[in-house]
Specification:
It is a multi-pass membrane protein. The chain is an all-alpha fold. It has 13 helices and two strands. About 70% of the residues lie in helices and about 0% in strands. It is flat and about 75 Å long.
């Protein structure tokens, strides 16, 4: 005897009707194309990570989990992850502080906001390769303008050729290029804040720092986390600036995991090992995304 459904529970036909709505049917072709473009490379990446391409790239042999065991044992991979962590944490921290600070200044600016935002956004439209070339020409020890200025203060060193200065240099180039993105995202969130709490605080005689601490920053917390989420996913993948300026040197001091993947795949043609590295980067990116989302929705 069939069990009666609980009152108010949707029937199977109702669920199907909600699925086959006009909006979903219009989105279906695009979603199928995107799924095919994304799923096939992902499945092939898993397949490649289990194969050995060293003998013949067009006729690989089955390697089992050899590439994955090598991934967890290779000291060069751990070194690249260490460099990536320093590069990402330092870069994101500076971009967050500068981006949020400038967004707050622009939010409070009585005039000239649009002009300054337009000028401040210019580095975003510069290709990362061009940003790397610009940094290379400005910091080159032979003819760079910034290098010449540093030499006037007694700093005589090859910035991109010294282990102690190469990584800070590429971090500063990344901060210069991508801080405006943080500013743009946070400023858009600030401009959408409700005005009633700020007006009430103004009537109660709250100072700017009190409004910033108890109203503006708490209300902007989610948009700041979104900005960090976007940049954290990009910072591991973008290797253009480092490739142009240092190519991972000197002594692998700037070789982040994305550049290590590039070298393994296209310099040493070890496609199977490169596929395992790429999948590990995907896992880390998904973990970061889930962590940021948990932080974002954990403050309700």
């Amino acid at each position: 005897m069939p069990q009666p459904q609980p009152k108010g529970a949707p029937s199977a036909g109702g669920r199907l009707a909600r699925f086959f709505t006009t909006e979903n049917m219009m989105l279906a072709p695009a979603m199928l194309v995107l799924a095919s473009v994304s799923i096939f490379p992902f499945l092939y990446l898993i397949y490649a990570s289990l194969m050995d391409f060293s003998l013949a790239i067009d006729n690989p042999t089955f390697a089992g989990f050899r590439n994955w065991l090598r991934l967890v044992k290779d000291p060069l991979i751990f070194q690249s992850w260490k460099v990536t962590i320093v590069y990402a944490v330092t870069g994101l921290g500076l971009e967050l502080i500068l981006g949020v600070g400038i967004a707050l200044l622009l939010y409070a600016a009585p005039w000239g906001r649009n002009l300054f935002v337009t000028l401040w956004m210019l580095p975003i439209f510069v290709a990362p390769v061009v940003a790397g070339l610009l940094g290379w020409f400005l910091l080159n020890s032979s003819y760079g303008l910034y290098a010449w200025v540093l030499q006037q203060f007694g700093v005589h060193t090859d910035i991109f050729g010294t282990v102690a200065t190469a990584l800070p240099a590429v971090i500063l180039i990344d901060v210069w290029e991508w801080t405006p993105l943080i500013t743009l995202i946070v400023l858009s969130g600030l401009q959408s804040l409700p005005t009633e709490p700020l007006e009430a605080a103004e009537v109660d005689g709250a100072t700017y720092w009190q409004k910033l601490r108890y109203i503006i920053l708490p209300l902007s917390f989610r948009i700041i986390v979104v900005a960090l989420l976007i940049r954290s996913m990009d910072i591991m993948r973008f290797i253009d600036t480092i490739f142009i300026t240092t190519a991972g040197g000197p002594a692998d001091s700037t070789k982040i995991i994305g550049l290590r993947l590039f070298d393994v795949a296209f310099r040493f043609m070890d496609i199977g090992f490169a596929a395992a590295i790429g999948l590990s980067m995907l896992v880390v990116t998904i973990f970061l995304g889930k962590a940021f989302i948990r932080v974002m929705y954990g403050r309700e």
